[in-house]
Amino acid sequence: MTEIARAADEPRVDRRQRRRRQTIAEILEVALEVMGEEGVAGLSLSEVARRMDIAPPSLYKYFSSKLAVYDALFAQGVRQQKAAVEAAVHGVEPGLPALRSGTAAVVRWSVEHPVLAQLLFWRPVPGFEPSPEAFAPAVEVMDHLRQVIHDTVDRGQLHPDAASDRGLALFTCLTGGVISQQLANEPGADFVAGRFTALTPEIVDMFVRRYSPEEEP
Questions:
Q1: pLDDT of 117-147, one tens digit each?
Q2: What is the pLDDT of residues 47-85, one digit of tens each?
Q3: How many Cβ atoms are within 10 Å of 194's Cβ, its own excluded?
Q4: Under 8 Å CB-to-CB from 2, ≥6 apart: which residues?
Q5: For residue 195, with 0-12 CB atoms within 10 Å meaning exposed, 13-18 middle and 19 or more buried, which class applies?
Q6: What is the pLDDT of residues 154-188, one digit of tens each?
Q7: Integer Cα distance of 125 and 151 in angstroms
Q8: What is residue 7's predicted lDDT score, i.e. its pLDDT?
Q9: What secondary structure does DSSP assign to 18-51, as a single string?
Q10: What is the pLDDT of the chain when averaged over all its residues?
Q11: CA distance to 49, 82, 84, 127, 145, per residue, from 96 (Å)
């Protein structure tokens, strides 16, 4: 192929890739719509295809199975959550201010994206486990949380045990509890008005009291 022919062909390749990405994004958007109406486990690829006005087999050009769609949505959700936390703590003083801001961001994102939050924090789909690639950002989220807590310990605001595996497990239980209670009992309320999300500052206070720097290990 000559250089001229190759250059002429490249825009066509780019267009195909762009259309493919757009179609994948639309599939995921419609899948979220269906899951929001029918429940997270109620996803139907036939219904997705119907709403997109395409033949069901056409979806398999983009996803090999329904579980592959769930996997892509899991990865999308974790990336969104990670971005929300990073934005919330950017420019915030390290230590307790960053911990409070990041915690509020996780809870707020979850109530604003309830379908993805259920996929991330619950196990609503029988047989589904995220692939290592989809789960990788979740590991990064936990590493970031550990670092924020380490920063808080370094400033003398928490006992060193707060950054232990047990400490992180307790913190995720507190945060996950607020999210689960809100989504289960007041799914339509926003972060500010929610009866359970309003407790977000208090769960951080509970964690601080449990791991007070004056506490014995």
A1: 999 999 999 999 999 999 999 999 999 999 9
A2: 999 999 999 999 999 999 999 999 999 999 999 999 999
A3: 23
A4: none
A5: exposed
A6: 999 999 999 999 999 999 999 999 999 999 999 98
A7: 36
A8: 47
A9: HHHHHHHHHHHHHHHHHHHHH-GGG--HHHHHHH
A10: 92
A11: 47, 19, 18, 39, 12
DSSP string, 109-128: HHHHSHHHHHHHHS--STT-
Q: Which two tokens stand for residue 100?
A: 């409070």
Q: What residues contact residue 129 under an 8 Å CB cut-off, 6+ apart?
A: none
- Cβ atoms of 106 and 84 within 8 Å: the answer is yes
The span from the CA of 21 to the CA of 28, in Å, is 11
One-character DSSP codes across 128-174: ----HHHHHHHHHHHHHHHHHHHHHHHTTSS-GGGGSHHHHHHHHHH
Separation in Å, CA 215 to CA 133, 197, 212: 39, 28, 5
Question: Which residue would you say has higher pLDDT here, 2 or 90?
Answer: 90
Tokens of 16: 């195909």
How many other β-carbons are positioned within 10 Å of the β-carbon of residue 7? 10
- Region 103-109: mean pLDDT is 97
Tokens encoding 80: 């969104």
Q: Report pLDDT for 4.
A: 45
Matching residue, tokens 């892509």: 72
Q: Which two tokens stand for residue 17?
A: 């890739």
